[in-house]
Amino acid sequence: MARVSSLLSFSLTLLIFFDGYAAQQGQEGQQFPNECQLDQLNALEPSHVLKSEAGRIEVWDHHAPQLRCSGVSFARYIIESKGLYLPSFFNTAKLSFVAKGRGLMGKVIPGCAETFQDSSEFQPRFEGQGERQRFRDMHQKVEHIRSGDTIATTPGVAQWFYNDGQQPLVIVSVFDLASHQNQLDRNPRPFYLAGNNPQGQVWLQGREQQPQKNIFNGFGPEVIAQALKIDLKTAQQLQNQEDNRGNIVRVEGPFGVIRPPLRGQRPQEEEKEEGRHGRHGNGLEETICSARSTDNLDDPSRADVYKPQLGYISTLNSYDLPILRFIRLSALRGSIRQNAMVLPQWNANANAILYVTDGEAQIQIVNDNGNRVFDGQVTQGQLIAIPQGFSVVKRATSNRFQWVEFKTNANAQINTLAGRTSVLRGLPLEVITNGFQISPKEARRVKFNTLETTLTHSSGPASYERPRVAEA
Amino acid sequence: MARVSSLLSFSLTLLIFFDGYAAQQGQEGQQFPNECQLDQLNALEPSHVLKSEAGRIEVWDHHAPQLRCSGVSFARYIIESKGLYLPSFFNTAKLSFVAKGRGLMGKVIPGCAETFQDSSEFQPRFEGQGERQRFRDMHQKVEHIRSGDTIATTPGVAQWFYNDGQQPLVIVSVFDLASHQNQLDRNPRPFYLAGNNPQGQVWLQGREQQPQKNIFNGFGPEVIAQALKIDLKTAQQLQNQEDNRGNIVRVEGPFGVIRPPLRGQRPQEEEKEEGRHGRHGNGLEETICSARSTDNLDDPSRADVYKPQLGYISTLNSYDLPILRFIRLSALRGSIRQNAMVLPQWNANANAILYVTDGEAQIQIVNDNGNRVFDGQVTQGQLIAIPQGFSVVKRATSNRFQWVEFKTNANAQINTLAGRTSVLRGLPLEVITNGFQISPKEARRVKFNTLETTLTHSSGPASYERPRVAEA
Amino acid sequence: MARVSSLLSFSLTLLIFFDGYAAQQGQEGQQFPNECQLDQLNALEPSHVLKSEAGRIEVWDHHAPQLRCSGVSFARYIIESKGLYLPSFFNTAKLSFVAKGRGLMGKVIPGCAETFQDSSEFQPRFEGQGERQRFRDMHQKVEHIRSGDTIATTPGVAQWFYNDGQQPLVIVSVFDLASHQNQLDRNPRPFYLAGNNPQGQVWLQGREQQPQKNIFNGFGPEVIAQALKIDLKTAQQLQNQEDNRGNIVRVEGPFGVIRPPLRGQRPQEEEKEEGRHGRHGNGLEETICSARSTDNLDDPSRADVYKPQLGYISTLNSYDLPILRFIRLSALRGSIRQNAMVLPQWNANANAILYVTDGEAQIQIVNDNGNRVFDGQVTQGQLIAIPQGFSVVKRATSNRFQWVEFKTNANAQINTLAGRTSVLRGLPLEVITNGFQISPKEARRVKFNTLETTLTHSSGPASYERPRVAEA
Prior knowledge:
Three copies of one chain form a homotrimer.
Chain A: H1 2-28, E1 48-52, E2 55-59, H2 65-70, E3 72-79, E4 83-90, E5 93-100, E6 102-108, E7 116-117, E8 138-139, E9 142-146, E10 149-153, E11 158-162, E12 169-176, E13 190-192, H3 215-218, H4 221-228, H5 232-238, E14 248-250, H6 268-277, H7 286-290, E15 294-296, E16 305-307, E17 311-316, H8 323-327, E18 330-337, E19 340-347, E20 352-358, E21 360-366, E22 372-379, E23 383-386, E24 391-396, E25 400-407, E26 414-416, H9 423-426, H10 429-436, H11 440-448, E27 455-457
Antiparallel strand pairs in A: 1-2, 2-3, 3-12, 4-11, 4-13, 4-14, 5-10, 5-12, 6-9, 6-11, 7-8, 10-15, 16-17, 17-18, 18-25, 19-24, 19-26, 19-27, 20-23, 20-25, 21-22, 21-24
């Protein structure tokens, strides 16, 4: 009888387990999707690290509720000095931000010309082994990148990075899984042209993990040999089957790619030239080849909001960088000093992914239920999502707090809760007095006391009676 | 042994339960989503009522199959005389229709100027308590609204309403959950700037229901005090924690907002002025601030179809109101007399949500299988969805039947089954004779007898031999 | 005790079964959708055949993993000589390709005029039975179609086909379920104006299969009689309830629709005339009525790539046919000779659905993991999906291999792995030497040996040392 009882309890357990599963389904958005029912947010750190010979790729778990709700995934690339991130492409649009260091970057856009040539008398033929030294290279555009650069990449476009500095080159990227630019499911999928990933796509579920190989590896070597008109041995080398260096490899010796002079002076003429060479006959607009896809957000002289004592904020949207219209993403760069506060605000038409590049801040986030779903410190290297409509306030708690926000709209709009352009300013006094049951006198303070638009001191006196003169 | 048997039956029950669950999953669109496999539609009434001090909000269950298929949610706002619907915003685009009454409406659009000032010498500073009477207010645009007004609202934009009439002000709103304007999940989420919802978001699933508070409530009071430069006590008052009035509150005394003169004469000059003040530096186009977002559909002189004996139909699409292109919604207003019929038609590229504002009608709806999935009466206050491709015919059964249809496309196209611009008219006679196995003579009647385009009498003689002269 | 043990084992089975179900859910994309985790592709054949009096409709199972991932469904229409595919419309945008034969096609676009009239003195009234012979027809545009024609159809627009040739007319169509043009769920749903489908919508799940009837069948006959102003008997005939001919019926005698002269000379004047008659007052742009929606991809003189010894490739995107921008689809037609190879490539921003119209080819497809997920023969009548980012190489293995690819982007971009405009050409030599651990000499061969852009011989010598002169 004891056994029967235990069986009974076993079956009951089963029932409970099943019930639990069904309940979880409801919560997890199976019955009716509700992945944005977020009662708690967390500062997120990477969940997977892919190690390579000369760096590592750190991947955030895009199944984390706040990232699922936001429809994005996120990764950080740490490329050591002399490290080369080998060309790969994604099924999604991508927006990247150079958090540290400097380097070179190249993208290969289908059908565009090799506009970088190291000699005007370039002849792409060999005339025997003895004359090999006369050979010159030609390839598509190579750009210098440096801290603050924000780089838009369309799906299916191969991109590589090289760290030609002394410090690690750190790049963070957001991948828009929810946009129709991604025509696969809601998973980020890198496709490797070279290199590999011995650990496999650990961020995917339901696939038995195998090492991830490059594309050539999947074709028969004789196909590669025929397609590239090379011998079978070289074709097999392209498959890199014995290679375990990962996707960031160390370059020995000089990295002799053709590159423009360092910035300060944009090479305008070369860009124009590209335009003329553009179209190669596969349905691309001429302008794609010369479209600018990079801008720097770290130049305070171009800031949208700048207050010497408090900090600055710069935004990059599709008015600045038209390709963003196409990839449906935009970015904001912020840098504030100790005790500066970014006035409370919400994103009207976008989700935001905030990544801390330096320092730390105290952040509060409020959801649709009026609950504080985050109240804590975020520090360098952490990420937090701020879903559409959720209000957020940021106060620097270190000497300098610097961050980048990626937004899932080419023209993300914010609404502020306080300040000269805030929602309270736009409301009639009567709405405020009746809504909050306060006197007209109090309502006037609520509405007019703060004259700044975006940044203010957070350590001021706790009580104000009069409006102050606007600072910015 | 009896126990063992009962255990067996229990386990079998469990298995059946589990099987039933799996089967339901199939039906409910879990395995492969098929939420539009609709074999029966129903005239829907609100499932939740949120009571407030001066009115109530009635919410339809957006999980009802026909609303899930249509990708929208729906609510009705009943605001009593002197009632103020406090400012709130949504994660979705919204299209509203004023079904009854009149009032005032304000929206606060991020970054736009306070163009309503009650004196040209406005000085936003106080010069001591004694001079308070010289103080003037300034705020964003306030509009008169009245029955028939159709109002587009973008996500994240706070909106308020005030009933300055004697009768209840009734507004119905559709929320587009399926558009990419909504970047959260497929649930409508109001965010309250002021006011609250003591009953909680009862339309959400999987969240333990808590009273819904305003946004200020979620921040620490010291954060609010610092952001608004007010004292802590006022900050706490903004959190409204003791307030149980809901989101529609009663205004005691006059509601002295600055407002334009009543319509008849549109205040063109003010609108122009707004345009010039527009941009305030947060990435908005100047035109957003002055973009028209309201139009009235109750003026028969502007009707698209007008027949004195039968009624009229007016549509509002993005050619009339360009902001609709952005929010991907449009509207149709209809008003027909007893026994008038709207000729059978289908929506080519949109789902439609039909809400009855007055009277009643007999409606038949036919799905993709050729089955009649609705055949019944719809009466004032009821709603029915007409999914893309489903054909519908409406016949007034009361003295006057009036309705509004919200469509999930900025330029919804209809195709009629009968009439001068119908699909049958566009088909060659041979297709009709062969398709329906009827004689050329019958085919000609089918094709040419009805000369109206949209509205006809439904009580005419049952047999016609000849085409009649077109009426409209 | 034996029974108790068996019970235990039974319960364990249950647990395993449940576990299996949960695991399958993970795989099938329930927990987190991952329908594009494709480790194996297959050449697909139709899963359902709907037989009609004068032809048949063959439907592919759109739940097949590769089609679910691609977000499309697919069907083949085989219309016998004198067969008429009766007018029906879909909830999705559709792109069709005429694989064999020739015929007539008509679409009825809402609100557009009947621009085809068989006499300029047309009077749409009858003047008594005796004069009926003077009656003329008028209807919307009728077009000749022939092998190679690619036809765009918007949702909700009724379309018919007639085979006026001697051979079967074969049309294949892709339906874009994932685009927002489809506002229902991800199932293709035909709506029949005439005809029927006695077998029911066998491709749908979770609905008890019933014969599918035409739209008129769903309305009450008295409604139809009143709407069309016909007698009840004719109304009942429109419901076709006794009809079992299916949706492709045989036309006895001549099919006397008004049609333009056969092509060679496009009837430019008539098209212009349509433009002027366009708008009929239901919110359509004038241009919709005269918008071209058909182009022929079988004319080698208009090919994008043409090599007499190898074959040709033609693309049709929204630059060629602007309506494609609206329906978010494009097409590619290929025709290659024995042993010609289409150089390996991937789709940057689209999924592709490849359908073989003639001959056979050896195809290899490589996924994001670098695995070969397809390596086999595809033959006439088969279909295979090539998801975004997956690389593919095609080699003809019959005298001539001809195919059509439908792509889920109005301007699908490809990237090639080999050839003069390939990604390898765009990469600096240093990236290639470091990425593949090959010598600069080998890297130059890899980069420069193949001078063709798209097509090459696949039977050339296995080893090449020098680049050859470009052929195309």
